[in-house]
Amino acid sequence: MKKLFVIFIVLALAGGGAYGYYKFSGQGQGTGPKTVVVSRGTIVEKALAMGEILPRHEVAVKSKISGTVAKLFVEDGDPVKEGEPLLEVKPSPTPLEYAQAKRTLEMRLLVEQQRQADLERTKGLLQRGMVSQSENDKAREAFDQANLQRRLAEEELAILDKGKAVVAGRSVESLILSPVAGSILKLNVAVGDPVVPLTSYQPGTELLTMADMSDLLFKGTVDEIDVGKIREGMPVELKVGAFPDKLVQGVLSRISLKSQKKDNATVFEVEITQLQVPEGMVLRAGYSANADIVIRRAADVLRLPERVVEFRGDSSLVRLPPAAAGAVPEERPIEVGMSDGINLEVQDGLKEGDAVLEKETREIK
For residues 68 and 324, which has the higher predicted lDDT (pLDDT)? Predict the structure, then answer.
């Protein structure tokens, strides 16, 4: 009797295991073909642009005199007003430059003294009627020119020697002032660094860069496949890499007329402005971002995952679950509208709540 009881328990456990395997392996009656249900929602057709957040205008500050950095009045990130001092450049002319400026001043001083003597002599001759008024005027003009040349040489020497001078009543000095109001993006020099001046034949040392961080925009590129669908004025949703859970709204303001090659693809540059930044979100220059340019939006429409729709020529077909076990699934043509790449708009052929079969998958052996 005891032996029969043990056999009964073993058979019961084996039967339960077989039932569980049969049920959960998808071979029982409780498991049928996978389906999706037609639902209502919003479909948004978008074009993707990839790029970064940048200030509208970025200014590179340079010096017009050579020397070394003597003082710094700002640091990275500091806000500044127009005309506020940024740094001071101490002139450091070469011995040859200083000697040339000194000798030039001495020679022009001698020329001025000579022209002054000529003018005094011509005045005396004019009073005795020995020269004409025009000759006296020429002597006056020559003296005035010599005087200007001497003053110019003095100013050049003062700038080389002291880093400052007064030219036509205006102070010219080695203090570099902010050309615009904004913030310091990057300080490129330190105290003691040499400074090459900006001239017509050399770009000069870039001392720092600055920009108005209250006026930002997005610059990026759109693939040529999508550029024909977009136009200026379209709304845009920006996803900034540093803030994955927040959206920045904007407006597409510019589409380049000329393409460019990027990673073996043809793309067009776009600009997005009028950025509406959520509260508590601070944008910085250089943030990477993706922009979804909204081409069309359909709200409260029937939709299906695009993967369950089969396209044959101009027809769109879906498969409906069989009415009875063993029956062949029905193929039904439907009319579809816009797509967002994941879901399709169903315009006709199905109603909300209808079930549609998933496409069959085949195991690769």
Answer: 68
